Amino acid sequence: MARRALDESDVRVRPSRRGSRPRTKTRPEHADAERALVTGVDRGRYTVLVDADGPGERVATAMKARELGRERVVPGDRVDLVGDTSGAAGSLARIVRIADRTTVLRRTADDTDPVERVIVANADQLVVVTALADPEPRTRMIDRCVVAAYDAGMEVLLALTKADLADPVTLRSLYEPIGVRVVVTRRGGDAIEGLDALQDALAGRTSVLVGHSGVGKSTLVNALVPDALRATGVVNDVTGRGRHTSTSAVALRVPGPAGTWVIDTPGVRSFGLAHVDPDHLLGAFADLAEVAQGCPRGCTHAADAPDCALDDWVAGAPDDDARAGRAARVDSFRRLLVSRTGAPDPAG
Questions:
Q1: Residue 126: enclosing H or E segment and its boundaries?
Q2: Distances in whole angstroms, Cα of residue 83 to Cα of each of 49, 53, 66, 91, 105
């Protein structure tokens, strides 16, 4: 018996498990979305401030919409929300858009790690919190933070704590000449002396605080924002390192002038710069960049670079103390250069 030809009516197509709607890359407009500020991130849930500084300001909880994919949402982000944005108990909104960022502070695990970690968005300045003692200051860490901030288009403020334990003059002399603003605080009984100067430097800005554990960063945050209740720790007598007390970044409004925010971050022990173009490193050392204008064309500024003006600058210091300070600056820059380019190590 001959088989007849099949026509279209005889063809049966198994329905898709994901439904019959055709796929599209066109995202919905979400014209009714509300703008919010991300203030905290915790395991896939985002604390947001809807209509920040407006008449309808309220705290809500949100999740990231699937359409955003792997795009990361961080404290400081301004986002658009849909769904239940009331902030009522048990409510959950969806983040459907991330507004253009003015600045993005990034770091990597080390100088060879290709994975960038976005820390915060839309901050105006990076506040590097450094103890003058207990634990000892690490200038190379400060330099790395300065490079990362300048690369992100942010200003830098160096907040020196524990001035009751050590003199700040050396660190001030290293960073104030290159345009880094410095404030100094010390313990004075139950109060923090120098807090007024820090508040003035933060006024009207969004500032992200970065520093090693144990330097007093959370103590400063608690003094600036009394209801922050950030956990504080102590420094280990053996290792000289602090215990990590802040476990997540959080944006906090500072009482006082409008628009003053601080973003407290967990303590860090490294600040990788794999994301920074090596050609931009010298720009973070304003004093060295000026000196380097006298270098021969094509100078790499590495330790073995012939006729490098940086070496002449060190040798031409007026006294031993100035020579040691200049040498430390050049050594710090060249060590960053080694990490990013494989240039000869100044230590040999």
A1: strand 125-131
A2: 15, 21, 14, 9, 30
Do the beta carbons of residue 143 and residue 284 sit within 8 Å?
Answer: yes
Q: Which residue has the tokens 């520093």?
A: 211
CA distance 295 to 312: 10
Predicted confidence (pLDDT) per residue in 207-256, tens digit: 999 998 889 998 999 999 988 765 544 433 333 344 444 457 899 999 99
Q: What is the DSSP letter of 173?
A: H
CA 200 to chain centre: 21
Q: Which of 282, 339, 249, 330 is nearest to 150 (CA)?
A: 282
Which DSSP category does 320 fall into?
H
Does an H or E element contain 148, and which?
Answer: helix 139-152
Cα 195 from Cα 218, distance rounded (Å) = 13
C-beta separation of 142 from 158 below 8 A:
yes
Any idea which of 18-22, 168-172, 265-269 has the lowest mean pLDDT? 18-22
Nearest to 205 by CA among 257, 160, 131: 257
Q: Which of 35, 105, 52 is nearest to 74 (CA)?
A: 105
Q: Give the tokens for residue 72.
A: 């990361």
